[in-house]
Design brief:
Mean pLDDT: 75
Strand order of the largest sheet: 12-16-17-15-14-13
Distance between the termini: 63 Å
Structural class: alpha+beta
Oligomer: single chain
């Protein structure tokens, strides 16, 4: 057999299995025959691992049909997954590891191949306590996962802080590996540490990520989860040969410092500028102290930014070029902090304080020049300050390099620290503390001036307008109407006015001119460094125990529901017993919420792994790709997080390799930037978690997809499909429109794996794409796989559960609200909108249900932001529902997400809102016509 013949047989077998099911013995017989022959071919072609995997698959097929306890349905899924991976190896040239064969097949082959080598590596540390070794392996894996995105980011933008963090972590792992007897790992990271030192913080040695990969495989081998990676000697040699490329020194533009000049602007304008600039700088001092205490206080940071922005603009208008220059440079620094590119702390805060002090001295010089009519001299040290700010902006200054030593004894209060330093006296501190107790509400205008929203002259002008109009208009309305402030600024000031809160002691001492702002900042920094840290105690729990706990909580919820809804209990229940049952219900609900929260983990680690994947793929393909993540703190059930990794790998791989254009020139010709972007985001919506993979590349070509589908007889000539139906074709096994084969994949290759994995989590995956604009893959997943709040409904004699988060409202319609629209069926007129109505009894063929909408209830449900109406007979109430699987035979029923044991012990079906809408879109026209005829 040649390769083309093998590809044809694989495709034919995939189609055969797709059209069969687990009970089709003939399909299994064909699968075993074909896989056996392909295994022989693979071994003859030098792919012995592939041959062994296929032989293992054949053995499992035999096991299922000999009745050896293996489920035929599970073997069916295993075989389909094996075929998908086999297509990637044979047709696309992927390695066995890249193709991601089912673990049950791959692990068996790998373990057989690596048994002796693994045991050798595992015995490296026979003299070390196994518990210590296991703890190190777990710790190292966590460090590697956290370190990888930092290294990827530092490769593009080396920063002293990031490089120092990388070196610190590598040094620790090196020492710990040596302690537990892992000499090869310790030696490898020693070479990494030396390479970082030689780079001097200016370059990240390229071999660091390879070292992490080797260490991961080494750990997996010790744990018996994979083959050993071999000797790291080649990596060590490469790291030792690493020589950092000499940085190209680009002369910085010198600071623009004007020579001595004569002030020619209007003296009144100058005096007004001097007054307002001083007020802005004084307020900036106090707001900067707030930033020192909390660098993420956006209001305080924005207030400081506004001060510099205002001074820059007015000084430029008045021709004060020195002031404009230094304010502009400081504004750039603050803007980076506002955008989250740097954290304003340590040396960075000191730099802003130095700039404020410089501007204050320059204002004094301006005031003197205006008073005497003399020349305005350049302030000493101005050039050095501007150069320092530019060095900070270029990342050449580390925020942790303190300019002055922070005072010890930091557990004292700020007033005590300042007094012990001799900066102030007890009387001044006492006055500040007394002033704190005053709660007089500050006028709105003063708050806006203090927040540097408006200037003093603007406030005076607004007050004059208010006076002329007889105080009939509110000050805030006047400021907004004259463009001096925004409505949100007014609302924020009013909120502060309604809840008066005095400044901290340090800020009050600064306002009273008792101490310098920078002295207070240093005292705060010392207090923060030495303050006691509250450490939450954590306990590691085995995942199996946690799963068992959640299962028991689920059973408790069911048992509690049965008790509270028991007819026997209701007939004898006293008021006291009813209260006790209500208390039991409350405790059960709280226990369930706490139990579920234990399983919730952020998606950040999974997202961080993708940054490395994008980096490697971009380097391999020679493309410039920017990877963006959003919503990394979004939490999801641990089971879901563990299983979503593979689908994300497939989709991101396709986005980079085939979504993003092949060259920067091609992108520029389309009017795009040379660098492509891939965005991975997660967010909550409609009671579900949504994960989106978006690229700004070529987009999907619907014509190419249609042509390929017709070629493979997936659709007939003349079929009219929507964009959604066309894009869904790429999820068919082996479907690809790629013009060339790469060792990554083609758009659609492996996408059947994506859909299968997502649907196994009761999720859905959808595609939106525009040619030459880009593609968005949207995955919708349930928050948890165990317990939900559900609305119990009745249709005929059947009961169903609808997730409460999907229910918008319920309505009993009247005749005027029901309409029939051509080609769209029944519609509900609600608040000026037409909402489609779907009859649940017609979709599920339920007899004895209400057929007249005027006698029924319509539930308004949310489906991906759109509203639909579901006609039911009755609402029975709301309760917690434990989701149960319906088994292999019913897992693919459209519109059903699972089952639940009701209070009386019977089973109720849980409605999948998205699935029921898709089912209705297909079957509604004919069924609606029959239903209306019957009515």
């Amino acid at each position: 057999m040649d390769r083309d013949t093998v590809i044809t047989r694989i495709d034919a077998l995939a189609e055969c299995l797709l059209l069969s099911d687990a009970s089709d013995a003939e399909a299994f017989a064909r699968a075993k025959k074909d896989l056996s022959e392909i295994a022989v071919w693979a071994k003859s072609d030098g792919q012995s691992d592939v041959g062994k995997i296929l032989e293992s698959a054949c053995e499992r097929i035999d096991s299922a049909h000999l009745g050896n306890g293996t489920s035929a349905a599970s073997i069916y899924d295993l075989t389909v997954a094996c075929l998908s991976s086999l297509q990637m190896v044979v047709r696309d040239g992927c390695s066995v590891e890249q193709a991601q064969f089912p673990r049950a097949l791959y692990d068996a082959v790998v373990q057989e191949k690596a048994g002796d080598e693994v045991s050798t590596k595992a015995n490296e540390s026979t003299s070390i306590d196994r518990g210590i070794l296991a703890e190190f392996l777990d710790h190292a894996s966590t460090v590697f996962a956290d370190l990888e995105p930092v290294i990827v980011a530092a490769e593009s933008h080396p920063a002293p802080g990031a490089v120092a963090q990388i070196r610190r972590e590598i040094h620790t792992i090196k020492a710990e590996a040596g302690f537990v007897g892992l000499g090869e790992m310790s030696g490898l990271f020693h070479a990494v540490e030396d390479a970082i030192d030689r780079a001097g913080g200016g370059t990240i040695p390229e071999g660091i990520l390879d070292a992490l990969d080797w260490a991961r495989r080494h750990i997996a081998a010790i744990e018996g989860k994979g083959s050993a990676p071999g000797s790291p000697d080649e990596l060590v040699a490469r790291l030792r040969e690493f020589t950092p490329v000499a940085a190209v020194v680009v002369p910085e533009e010198p600071a623009v410092i004007a020579p001595s000049t004569r002030i020619e602007s209007d003296p009144d304008l100058m005096r007004e500028f001097i007054s307002e600039a001083r007020e802005h700088l004084d307020n900036a001092d106090v707001h900067l102290l707030t930033v020192e205490m909390n660098s993420r206080d956006s209001e305080a940071l924005n207030a400081v930014f506004r001060a510099f922005h205002t001074i820059k603009g007015v000084s430029g208008f008045l021709g004060l070029e020195d002031i404009k220059s230094v304010a502009h440079e400081a504004e750039n620094l603050l803007d980076k902090a506002r955008k989250g590119e740097i954290e304003l702390r340590g040396t960075y805060v000191d730099t802003v304080f130095d700039t404020i002090d410089m501007l204050k001295r320059m204002i004094v010089s301006v005031e003197g020049a205006v008073a005497t009519g003399g020349l305005l001299e350049s302030e000493p040290g101005l050039r050095q300050l501007v150069d320092h700010i530019r060095a900070v902006l270029a990342g050449k200054v580390d925020a942790n390099m303190e300019t002055r030593h922070a005072s010890p004894g930091a557990r004292k209060r700020i007033g005590e620290i300042l007094h012990s330093q001799g900066v102030t006296n007890p009387a001044a501190v006492g006055s500040a503390l007394a002033a704190q107790l005053q709660i007089d509400t500050m006028p709105l205008g003063e708050i806006l001036v203090r927040e540097i929203v408006i200037s003093r002259s603007q406030l005076n002008h607004a007050l004059e307008i208010q006076k002329q109009e007889g105080s009939t208009r509110k000050l805030g309305d006047i400021l907004v109407a004259n463009g001096m402030a925004r409505i949100e600024d007014i609302n924020r000031a009013l909120a502060k006015q309604s809840t008066p809160a005095s400044d901290p002691v340090g800020a009050m001492l600064v306002r009273a001119k008792e101490v310098a702002p920078k002295d207070v900042a240093m005292a705060l920094r010392g207090q923060k460094q030495h303050a006691p840290i509250e450490v939450k105690e954590a306990v590691k729990v085995d995942a199996d125990r946690l799963d068992k706990l959640i299962d028991l909580v689920g059973e408790l919820v069911i048992a509690e529901s049965m008790i509270s809804q028991s007819e026997e209990l209701a007939s004898v229940a006293s008021q006291h017993l009813t209260r006790q049952i209500s208390q039991l219900d409350k405790i059960t609900r709280e226990l369930q919420e706490i139990g579920m929260s234990l399983r919730m983990v952020p998606v950040r680690p999974t997202f961080q792994k993708m940054s490395r994947l994008v980096r490697d793929l971009a380097k391999k393909s020679g493309k410039q790709v920017e990877f963006i993540t959003e919503g990394e703190d979004t939490e999801l059930d641990k089971t879901v997080v563990d299983k979503i990794g593979d689908p994300l790998v497939h989709m991101i791989r396709n986005a980079v390799d085939h979504g993003i254009e092949a060259s920067a020139e091609e992108r520029i010709a389309k009017g795009k930037s040379a660098t492509g972007s891939v965005t991975l985001r997660a967010f909550h919506k409609g009671g579900n978690i949504h994960i989106e993979i978006q690229d700004d590349g070529r987009g999907l070509n619907r014509d190419s997809i249609l042509a390929k589908a017709r070629e493979r007889n997936l659709i007939r000539e003349g079929d009219q499909l929507t964009d959604r139906e066309i894009f869904d074709l790429i999820f068919e096994p082996g479907f690809s429109t790629a013009r060339e084969i790469t060792d990554v994949s083609g758009r659609g290759v492996g996408m059947d794996v994506v859909r299968r994995n997502v649907e196994s989590l009761r999720g859905q995956v959808e595609i939106q794409s525009e040619l030459d604009k880009g593609t968005v893959f949207s995955i919708r997943l349930p928050l948890t796989l165990a317990i939900i709040d559900g609305m119990v409904i009745r249709v005929g004699d059947e009961r169903y559960i609808i997730p409460t988060l999907s229910v918008v409202r319920s309505i009993k319609p009247d005749a005027e609200q029901i309409a029939t629209v051509t080609d769209r069926g029944e519609m509900l007129k609600l608040q000026g909108k037409l909402i489609p109505i779907y009859r649940l009894h017609t979709l599920f063929d339920v007899s004895s249900a209400k057929t007249d909408p005027l006698d029924a209830i319509v539930l308004i449900l949310d489906d991906e932001g759109a509203h639909v109406g579901l006609m039911v007979d009755e609402l029975l109430g709301q309760q917690q529902i434990v989701i149960k699987s319906l088994g292999e035979t019913m897992k693919a029923v459209r519109g059903i997400a699972g089952g639940a044991i009701m209070g009386d012990g019977t089973v109720g079906l849980i409605i999948d809102v998205g699935g029921i809408v898709r089912l209705a879109e297909v079957t509604a026209p004919a069924r609606a016509k029959r239903a209306m005829t019957a009515a």
